[in-house]
Amino acid sequence: MKLRWLAFLLLAVAFFTSCEKNTVSKIPHISLIRFGPDVIQVNLDTAFIEFSLTDGDADIGNDNTSQIYLKDTRYESAGFVKTPFPEIDGTIEDPKKGLQGVCLFIPVPQPTPRTDSLHMAVGDTMSYEIFIKDRAGNESNHIITNQIIITL
Fold first, then answer.
1. Which residue among 78, 124, 137, 138 has its CA within the 20 to 30 Å range from the CA of 151?
2. Could you say which residues of the chain have pLDDT below 50?
3. CA atoms 38, 39, 42, 44: torsion sign
4. Phi-psi region of 123 (alpha: psi -120 to 50; beta: other; left: phi over 0)
5. pLDDT of residue 13
6. CA–CA separation, 97 vs 24, rounded Å?
7. What pLDDT, on the 0 to 100 scale, is given for residue 128?
8. How confident is the model at residue 11, as a pLDDT?
9. DSSP element (H, E) containing 2
10. In what order do the strands lie in the sheet with 39-41?
11. What are the backbone angles phi and psi of residue 79, rounded to the nearest 5°?
């Protein structure tokens, strides 16, 4: 009888210790990897933003409610431009495991210098503020890219 209880207890301990609960936040989190290239010549080079992404319930992408929000920091009064989040393979979407990955984003339109004579002659510098929203409407942290130089 004691052996049965001991076996039951060992099985119960093994079962409960093997269960893994997802402890990653359901609110998406992004981290800048890089923004480049350092110098962009208009109509010759392509700017890109690479960032890492963690979402605890994996509800990002694959519909039009998940968005990437982008703002050119040179224009504080301008709002964010939103772009649908890229499609994610549905077979890797698992709310129990969450989602982690890297996103390579190409801003559209591409950066251009401000149109005043000084910036058109010598170039301009700029950076972006970026955040994302998942399907539940959870807004990630905001990141600001490093500055790049834009020339004609």
1. 78
2. 1-18
3. negative
4. left
5. 43
6. 9
7. 94
8. 42
9. helix 2-18
10. 39-41, 148-151, 124-126
11. -85, -175
d(CA 105, CA 51) in angstroms, rounded, equals 8
Q: How far is the C-alpha of 54 from the C-alpha of 77, rounded, in Å?
A: 30
Query: What pLDDT was estimated at residue 96?
Result: 79
pLDDT digit string (tens) for 60-88? Answer: 877 778 889 999 999 888 889 998 888 87
DSSP string for 63-125: SSS-EEEEEETT-TTS--EEEEPPP--GGG--TTT-EEEEEEE--SSPP---SSHHHHHH-EE
Euclidean distance between CA atoms 6 and 3, whole angstroms: 5
Angle (nearest 5°) at CA 145 between 55 and 122: 160
DSSP state of 47: -
Type of residue numbered 115: T
Task: Name the token pair of 32.
Answer: 């800048």
For residue 84, CA distances in Å to 61, 66, 70 come to 8, 6, 11
What's the first-to-final CA gap in the chain, in angstroms? Answer: 85
Question: pTM for the complete prediction?
Answer: 0.77
Total residues belonging to the chain: 152
